[in-house]
Fold each of these.
Amino acid sequence: MLIVATKKTKKSVKRKNSPRANPRISQNGTRFAGAAAHLAEIGKSFHARGWVLGTSGNFSAVISREPLRLAITSTGLDKGSLTPAQFLEMNEAANVVRGDGRPSAEALLHLAIARGVNAGAVLHTHSVWSTVLSGSHASQGGIALEGYEMLKGLADVRTHKHREWLPILENSQDMVELADHVSKTLSEIPGIHGFLLKEHGLYTWGAGLQEAKRHVEILEFLMEVLVRSGAAQSA
Ligand SMILES: [Zn+2]
């Protein structure tokens, strides 16, 4: 009798951790698959626009808030041929809990943004425009975007008269230090929609993937306008 009881207990423990018996694990799996497919499409479209050439850029989406879980690009991938299988699920310590490969070195920045502004998705590009402007305006600490109709594409912006401040942070290969700097910037300048890393690229986010994608398109458009209209030279 005792042996039977022990077996039953083991079986029930095993079942508890299986996706079928634990709705939360199963739900995460479905969300992860959906996010990975959507992120792969977004990544390919950004590559086609020239915003993530080489293996540059990385993309993530929050698939669970408690505990924090993100679907994120594996490192070193050609973004022009991204597939859903090249995404990982990572936890709040940037450890992989689903999928093969390593998360990008910048995974800590994605986590800082997901926490700092409660973002549902974080997208990072390395465009020519952001590289040029973040270099030319670095001494000013950021770029002011004002008077453009396209600003209305940013969440909660209703008029072209809105003044959007795009801070420029010093670039670093020390991701722990850089993630701290990002967290500090997000808490000190509430309401921003993105920031630049000097001569590196743009980080922006949104409540969900669709909004984050829109923010990349709007901010990349406005930075291209500034460079083409000569703002980089006059800075
Ligand atoms: Zn980068």
Note: Confidence is low (pLDDT under 50) at residues 1-17.
Amino acid sequence: MGGIHLHPHDILDEGPAAIMKLVGKMGRIRYLLPEANTIFERNPYPAGILPHNPVHDVVQGTGTFHLSLDTRKLCPRLYQATDSSVEDGRDSLGLLLEAAKGTPYSVVPWVNLLNGHFEGDLHHNGVVDFRGNPVEHWLCPNGRDVVEMWTNVLLAASERYGCTTFLLDRIRFPDWAGKQVNPAGLFSCFCDRCRSKMVRLGLEPDPLRAELDGVVRMLGEKQFDEAVARITDSAAVQAWIRFKQDSVSSFIESLTASLRLRNPSIVCWLDLWPPSYAWILGQDYARLTKHSPALKHFPYHKLGGGADVQGLIEYFASERDDREQAFLAFMRLFGMDYRISYEQFKQHGFPIEFVGVENDKVRSLSQPGTYIFSGIQMWNLSPDELVLAIDEADRSAADDVLYYCYGWADPELFDAVGTRMADEK
Ligand SMILES: [Zn+2]
């Protein structure tokens, strides 16, 4: 049985009854995944309007916390800004849970752990890039108070709302996307605690910085193949990638252990990047799936697998030929073997087989028995394209699908899923 992501504005603006009516058309949906705290994402992304929201055309995420809990009381040294809707007494998760009583739906809150509007001691908890600049709105998995904060918040959420399963998202180092493309965000983290940890692991931060500087210089000089070779061949860069993965895995290990100690019934699912990209952001499927019975990842083929591919290519290359070269180098770095040009990518995204290829990689990298949800892009595409993506996921090694997302999807897409599922019976 599949699931679908909801944003707080869906519940507050449309109401749970309208949501269940549309979602009910899809068939085979068991899980509703309401977002507990937003990121800085335009809804819908990157353009367009919310097609069935009666209140807002567009909602800009502000990285705020939407549950009726005071995160500052729960962890005074590190906490998240509370959304103004909560201060007005509106509780999106509470409304949804009340409405879901007695229905077949299970509610799994979806929580963004390391990206948002956090406050408190950011010096000991925030990400710093390789040039020593703070990366705005990102917490470091090695941050001093991050495990304590999320332990306390998730325990309190479970107590207040009765939920025991949570989908943990944004458990990684930053990528290059943001308000503006920022490749330096990817080359993190060099906070005090990360630098000390690097030294303990035998990785010297200063020579590593010089190596990453070299990669950036090559990209700036449009030596894309050389930059990829440096990332692939440099012992220091490869050790840094292992350091990132160890940092994220250790964070999840500490968090799940401290939750288990205080409430053994809490279960954490993980929301990960497609495996072609996950490694460079610190996500090690084999180690992470030792601590989670289920995961979702998002092989949204039309959107480059969730990565801002176009933003990165056009940041470094303005001429047509350079862009083609940069795109080839990009695909080689991330182990992709699609015979498409950059121009074709811009128009259509990756070919549909991206969905199956990434799902099969997830299966082979994850611990045996991991329940794998293939994320399915449910906006900015036609009903036929949506059904093709479901078919591709169905043929792959994934167990089921999670749709992203309710509020951005045209009404006709709910019907298309319903018809597709009815055909399968
Ligand atoms: Zn750090």
Note: The first helix runs from residue 8 to 14.
